[in-house]
Design a protein that fits this description.
It catalyses: 2,5-diamino-6-hydroxy-4-(5-phosphoribosylamino)-pyrimidine + H2O + H(+) = 5-amino-6-(5-phospho-D-ribosylamino)uracil + NH4(+); 5-amino-6-(5-phospho-D-ribitylamino)uracil + NADP(+) = 5-amino-6-(5-phospho-D-ribosylamino)uracil + NADPH + H(+). InterPro entries: APOBEC/CMP_deaminase_Zn-bd, CMP_dCMP_dom, Cytidine_deaminase-like, DHFR-like_dom_sf, Eubact_RibD, RibDG_C, Riboflavin_Biosynth_HTPR. Pathway: Cofactor biosynthesis; riboflavin biosynthesis; 5-amino-6-(D-ribitylamino)uracil from GTP: step 2/4; Cofactor biosynthesis; riboflavin biosynthesis; 5-amino-6-(D-ribitylamino)uracil from GTP: step 3/4. Its EC number is 3.5.4.26, 1.1.1.193. In the N-terminal section; belongs to the cytidine and deoxycytidylate deaminase family. In the C-terminal section; belongs to the HTP reductase family. The strands form 3 sheets. Strands 11-10-9-8-12-6-13-16-15 form a 9-stranded mixed sheet, sandwiched between helices. The chain has a 5-stranded mixed sheet with strand order 2-1-3-4-5, sandwiched between helices. Strands 7-14 form a two-stranded antiparallel sheet. The chain folds into 2 domains: 136 residues, Cytidine Deaminase, domain 2 (3-Layer(aba) Sandwich), CATH 3.40.140; 201 residues, Dihydrofolate Reductase, subunit A, CATH 3.40.430. It is elongated. With 350 residues, it is an alpha/beta fold. The chain is built from 10 helices and 16 strands. The longest helix has 13 residues.
């Protein structure tokens, strides 16, 4: 492995520390070396804070070393003013003579401008390095920028004999989730919720399960709750109206309830392509990633439209014998893992 590849891999490793906090900014990692040693490291702060390059440069205890240093970064440094000043200005001002970049930034405000600005200032620039690995790391940001939609993760749990939900007769009492997966899998799902920007559920699942869609069993930020509710059938005393997380209802009705803090309504055309409209609306809201939790009709609408990138499917230990069949999906299986008593398969849309 070449030394520049080694340090770009370290950038990717550092960048993962920003998962769930940097969006809509990408989760970038940065390493600064002088000679054969690392003198500074950083990753993107939560949204609104300094970028990876700024944090790495400010971490250097002997700034005079920057004039002989190489800066490695997983994504092209920005050259425009946003919530923070351009990273290229700080790099140039610090006297760093060489910059190694994983991949170019497709954002219209960057898109090669950062590289051009560095070169114009006399900085040696190497790009790309480990392009495939950097694209995988930045897949949420790149999907949002290049495909104009969020990175879509489908998630469901199915019984050992392929059912996603039981017959209604098996449900007792007040609406609540019917658990197919075990507590270890459920905790992992709560971790996932802190890592993505939004989580989506359909009307039937919301009415039957009364879900919270928050990460109660993992520390982290709650995702935006997105609810597909054509006629606003979900009772307002349900958890989705409790204000514990910002919530968007996608509906077609004009009869909207009284305004509530944290609750927002967006109109879509339910006679059209549902998955397409959801993706378009989430893109407008600058949502870069979404977990689609169900139910079957909602999941199948994304599968049929081809608007999915990853499917995370838990298979429980026990059969249901009857009920609602799991969605049918084809994709490339990239992993198969035991989580407690469950099997977790992850598919990619190839």
């Amino acid at each position: 492995m070449k030394i520049q590849e080694k340090y770009i891999l370290r950038c990717i490793e550092l960048g993962k520390n920003g998962l769930g906090t940097t969006a809509p900014n990408p989760m970038v990692g940065c390493v600064i070396t002088a000679g054969e040693r690392i003198i500074g490291e950083g990753f993107t702060s939560p949204y609104g804070g300094p970028h990876a390059e700024v944090n790495a440069i400010h971490s250097v205890s002997h700034p005079e070393l920057l004039k002989e240093a190489t800066l490695y970064v997983s994504l092209e440094p920005c050259a425009h003013h946003g919530k923070t000043p351009p990273c290229t200005d700080l790099i140039i001002g610090s006297g760093i003579p060489r910059v190694v970049i994983g991949i170019k930034d497709p954002h219209s405000k960057v898109a090669g401008k950062g590289i051009a600005k560095l070169k114009a200032a006399g900085v040696e620039v190497v790009c790309p390095v480990l392009e495939r690995e950097c694209r995988e790391h930045h897949k949420r940001f790149l999907t949002f920028m290049e495909k104009k939609r969020p990175y879509v993760i489908l998630k469901w749990a199915e019984s050992a004999d392929g059912f996603i939900a039981p017959e209604k007769e098996l449900r007792e009492g007040e609406p609540e989730p019917f658990w197919i997966s075990d507590r270890y899998s459920r905790q992992l799902v709560h971790q996932w919720r802190t890592e993505e920007q939004a989580i989506l559920v359909g009307t039937t699942t919301a009415v039957e399960d009364n879900p919270r869609l928050t990460p109660r069993h993992w520390a982290g930020k709650a995702p935006l709750r997105v609810v597909v509710d054509r006629q606003l059938k979900i009772p307002q005393e349900y958890h989705l109206y409790d204000g514990t997380a910002p919530t968007v209802f996608l509906t077609e009705t004009n009869q909207l309830p009284e305004p509530r803090e944290g609750i927002h309504y967006e109109k879509i055309d339910f006679s059209g392509n549902l998955a397409l409209q959801v993706c378009e609306r989430l893109h407008e809201l600058e949502v870069q990633s979404v977990i689609v939790e169900g139910g079957r009709k909602t999941l199948c609408s994304f599968i049929k439209a081809g608007f999915w990138d990853e499917a995370r499917i838990f298979t429980g230990r026990f059969p249901l014998k009857n009920g609602l069949k799991s969605p049918e999906i084809e994709g490339k299986e990239v992993s198969r893992t035991k989580i407690g008593g469950d099997l977790l398969r992850i598919l990619e849309n190839d």
